Amino acid sequence: MMKSVAAALVAATAFSAPALAQDIKVGLSGTFSGPNAANGIPYRNAAEVFPKTIAGTGVQWIVVDDATDPTTAVKNARRFVDEDKVDIILGSTSTVTASAMTDVAVEAKTAQIALSPIQIAPAKRPWVFNLPQPVPIMVSAIVEDLKKRKLKSIAFIGYADGWGDLNWNALTAEARKAGIEVTTGERYNRTDTSVTAQVLKVIASSPDAVLVGASGSAAALPQITLKDQGFTGPIYHTHGTVVKAFIDAAGKAGEGALMPTGPVVAAAELPDSNPIKPVSLDFISKYEAKWGKGSASPVAGYAWDAMLLVEAAAKEALKTAKPGTPEFRAALRDALQSGREVAGTNAVYRFTAEDHYGVDERARVLVVVKDGAFRLAK
Amino acid sequence: MSARRLFLAGLVLALALAPLVLPPQFVTALTYIGLNGLVCIGLVLLTGVAGMTSFGQAAFCGVAAYATALLTVGQGWSPLASLPVSVAATALVALALGALTVRLAGHYLVLGTLAWGMAVFFLFGNLPGLGGFNGITGLPAIAIGGVAFTDPRLVHVLVWAAVALAMAMASNLLDSRVGRAMRSLPAEIMAESLGVPTARLRVAVFCIAAILAAVAGWLQAHYVRVVNPSPFGVNASVDYLFMVVIGGTGQLGGALLGSAVFEAIRTALRDVLPHLFGRSGSYEMAAFGILVVLLLNTTGGGMMPYLSRILPKPAPVRAPGSAGPLPRRERAQPGQALLEVRGAVKRFGGLVAVNEVSFEIRTGEILGLIGPNGAGKSTLFDLLTGVQPATAGEIRLEGRRIDGASPRAIAGAGVARTFQHVLLRPEMSVLENAALGAHGRGEAGILRSALRLDRAEEARILFEAQRQLDRVGLGEFAAQAAGHLALGQQRILEIARALASDPKLLLLDEPAAGLRHHEKARLSALLRELRDEGVTILLVEHDMDFVMNLVDRLVVVDFGTKIAEGTPASVRGDPRVIEAYLGGAEA
Amino acid sequence: MNATIALILLQDGLTSGLIYGLLALSILLVFLVTRVLWVPAGDFLVLGALTLAVLRQGEVPGTVWILAGLAAVTAIVETWRAWRAGDWRGWPRLIALVVVPSAAAVLATLWLAPQNAPVPVAILLVLALVTPIGFLTYRLVFRPMVDQPTLTLMFVAVAVHYVLTGLGLTAFGSESFRSPPFLPGRLDVGFTRLSYQLLIVLAVSAALMAALGLFFGRTLWGKALRATAMQRFGARLVGIRTESMGALAFTIAALIGAVSGVLIGPMTALYYDSGFLVSLKGFVGTVMAGMASFPLSVLGALLVGLVETGASFYASPFKEAIVFGLLVPFLLWRSAVQIRTRGKGHE
């Protein structure tokens, strides 16, 4: 207890001490509490193993919580640009909170790397980047798998929230392109106690497969209920479900569940030629040294990738400008969208002025739950 | 200018200049305090003033926010043009919801608004065209006359201008005829008997609160520039309620204080606790709940009363030295029948509480209605005042039937009453309580009052109230809180309030009950004076001594039946009265 | 929709409806006796379910520390209150009531939990751990506020809900829990298969409701409770200590919550914050019964469960809106009744 108070005091003084002029400042706002906490906390954990210098220049990672509240996210963004005068903003870690921050970033002409998939309006493209694989890329992996298995139809059951919406929209679009029928779209809430009715509706629409548009352990309820009601086709999940909590919650019923995810999940199984493999293994070793074996996740990997992107861009920008200046912020943005490839744990990123999503098919693999672990689906 | 007004003006000026000196994150926090404060002003009117509450305020913000998002993003309207439409849409929803629930007991309103808050959140997320749970982005900034409010400091000024306007209008409203009526709403029977249309006024207050929430929603939508369901769920509504509870629901200032303290607590918990416990996100909710419980346990009335002790006091409401007359009723000649009761019957199931009772009251007399306990006096009184309908029989006031009419209609016809258990608004001043009686003689409405266009009429009402207070001898206490008066004085205040309505007939329900000897004597003298001035009085009483020396005529009831009628002297000798009343009482 | 689906839906709706019904009972009981809108009803259900899940993993549930802390704080505060009032009569009995059951439950759990206690023992531990929390909440928070307006009491209830949810988060974390079923599988009854879990829920809630009925109808305490619910002031006049009745109502409410948690725990995954929506649906049930009748409240809650399942099947995105929209026709009807009875005098 005393130790943590002491640590807190140190941390507090570290934050309040006037920044040395040459330090690079990075603001990270995330959903460390509130409904999306499970998805946000790995980012904060990852930030603790971030490097303290880039190319000899000090870096301050200013990490704040937005409690999964878009209003707080906006307040955080304002604090970053007005008070801290950060050089780049990372965050937030949910779609809604990340979207809410974009206006501030654009107005302040500061680059923002969203850590949850968002839709970037053309007017905001100059300053807003999207790091995690956009949902359509992930869902397209599912649709490709359906085609490979020669399946004709899929049903959807997902959250009644923004995440559910994103996956539903992606599924209907990708399936239409591939000529696959979407038989029904059902919704439920994370805290619902039963999805039997929705599952029956899904089964009654006789699909060949089902996509569960949920995340984390709450994705287990439809998985279990589907199995329970005798559904035998493949059950897909979103990449938000690639967490240990899902396997724990679904238990035996979770075996065979399929989900697209970043390659970091199956890093050891990747071929040595894959540029993602060494980066992932490096990340996993550093992260797990601090947080324990088996703690690394694709979500923490996004945080790591954001750090790698900042690092690569800052090295370039430092050549032309001083941190803390508008010129440096612009240089950082230009370096980010220079079109150079940066290998991360979840993707090989290549942002250009026109494309601020910057990922391709290398950014996803399909994994299957087997013997209580995520394995590459062969 | 009073010290209070000077202080408020200084506060407004300080807030307006704050963005120039404060670091930006404080400006952001202040802007949100203002936005939330706007909603809370409505909640204070609703909860503290009118005694209702709502778990749907955030949903009202949401209706306006979504309306303006649809109009500006979808239809290309300017934010300013969409303001009236967004607010009107919200007001319409509130009107429907209010009409549905405000007649019911308080818990139905709570649960009705809770259900509405829950349902609307999911409707926002699922109705086509609203952008799902990710909402609508790209709202334009507010622009007024070519100035775009993109700078957060400008938004701050705009928000606080709205708050200042809302505060001014709300406090104008409270200090007016309608405001007094609003403050009388928690005592429904009293309010109705003073001619206040309680159901309609409740709906109106509900709509005012919704409109304030709508303005806040509109401002917030164009400040944050995105609209999505999460800030408009029930949790947000609960937050608003906590703000007013923390600040204090009794005064308008509590809205802003609560909003500020809430923001401070939340920020402090978020920033301090993680350092104390080494991780964040786990303790805030419990700590916040504990703080609220502690606060409510120690100060039921929130923090504003404490702040009020330090702040300059508001000037008490005073009557003007002179003012024009209020409308008066036409009066019949003395001696004519004013109120006629013919064969009145009231049954409760098999029990006959009032059985074929007939009598009349003549203009200018004091009539006593007496009988032992349980004789049916109170029931008869309820029939006369419309609190309960008669089962059979007729009651006529100047020839027109009033049996079965509502208490409000009977009050409107010129019958004023007092209550056996004194019903006053203890926190309002003696003068304001008396002025409540003149409610039916004024007509200024909500808008006129909020804009201060009611002053001429208000002066007449207050002048009349003061005149009646002087008449009954309470003039010197006008500025005191009514709750501070002794019981005897409170009864007399009720009479002054009744007189302020310029009644044709004054009904007094056991006015001597609980009074000390000298208080009774004073009351007796007052009633005699009033009679001499031409006021007609019916009093229900079981205190024989008090009645015998006071009234002109007596009606005696026992077991629901009239057993005697006449002058005190003749009734006193009536063997049936002696047996039923005196004999019964002593046996 | 065919008959098979209809029957499964019916089962599902009945199960949720029964759980809502149990909570509706606790909500109504607390409301009638103490005028408190019992928002935390669902939090007790969650506490019960999560405690059971952790116990069945052979670990010590965080509920132990919640209870121990609450009992300690209550004992200290009650001692302080006695000291300030200078009135020590009743203090020993009170402290015994506060400390003994809590300490017994805590110690028994610390001892038995790591030994992987058998299911019936685990259930008893859950009830022993969760039930005193209701009593302590009343002593610590609500009893001193007996004379506050209903509105204030409601705010306090919401704040208590925050506290319990927050404590749940610290004790159990943000992930969900599900206990293994007591009796896996289904019973084939010819035309459909009934899950054993549903049969257990049916049997236990029927038994619990019958027991409550007997308690209210036959025992002195139960009658006193009913009298308090009907006429607080009158009950005081005839010598019923309404404060004890408040404590009793809260204790029973907590017990009902714990039992519901034990019932629902193996059927679904629950989060620390799952309780609020369940409470609200219980509320909808009680409101539909006019906040007056116990059997009607259960019926109302059953209706809520069935409508919810039906809405989940036909229009799942709108199911919450539909469930809470149920109140609209009901409120309309109440309003109409109110206007008609008022208007009667004009005939």
Description:
The complex is a heterotrimer of chains A (378), B (587) and C (347). Chain A is α/β, with parallel strands linked by helices and 378 residues long. Chain A has helices spanning 2-16, 37-47, 70-84, 95-107, 135-148, 162-178, 196-204, 220-228, 244-250, 276-291, 298-317, 326-336, and strands spanning 24-30, 53-54, 57-65, 88-91, 111-114, 128-130, 153-159, 181-188, 209-213, 235-237, 258-261, 342-343, 348-349, 365-370, 373-376. Chain A has two domains: 2-133 and 281-363, Rossmann fold; 135-261, Rossmann fold (3-Layer(aba) Sandwich). In chain A, the strands form four sheets. Chain A has a six-stranded mixed sheet with strand order 2-3-1-4-5-6, with helices on both faces. In chain A, strands 8-7-9-10 form a four-stranded parallel sheet, with helices on both faces. In chain A, helix 11 crosses helix 12 (326-336). Chain A is globular, with a radius of gyration of 21 Å. In chain B, a hairpin with a 2-residue loop joins strand 13 (553-558) and strand 14 (561-566). Chain B contains 23 helices and 14 strands. A six-stranded mixed sheet of chain B has the order 10-11-12-7-13-14, with helices on both faces. Chain B has a four-stranded antiparallel sheet with strand order 6-5-8-9, with helices on one face. Chain B is an alpha/beta fold and 587 residues long. The mean pLDDT of chain B is 87. Chain B folds into three domains: 26-232, no CATH class; 332-414 and 504-587, P-loop containing nucleotide triphosphate hydrolases (Rossmann fold, 3-Layer(aba) Sandwich), CATH 3.40.50.300; 418-502, Rossmann fold, CATH 3.40.50. The longest helix of chain B is centred in the middle third of the chain and has 27 residues, at 198-224. Mean pLDDT of chain C is 86; it is low at 342-347. In chain C, strands 1-2 form a two-stranded antiparallel ribbon. The N and C termini of chain C lie far apart (50 Å). In chain C, a hairpin with a 4-residue loop joins strand 1 (186-188) and strand 2. Chains in contact: A-B, A-C, B-C. Chains A and C meet through strand 8, helix 7 and helix 9 of A and helix 1, helix 11 and helix 12 of C.
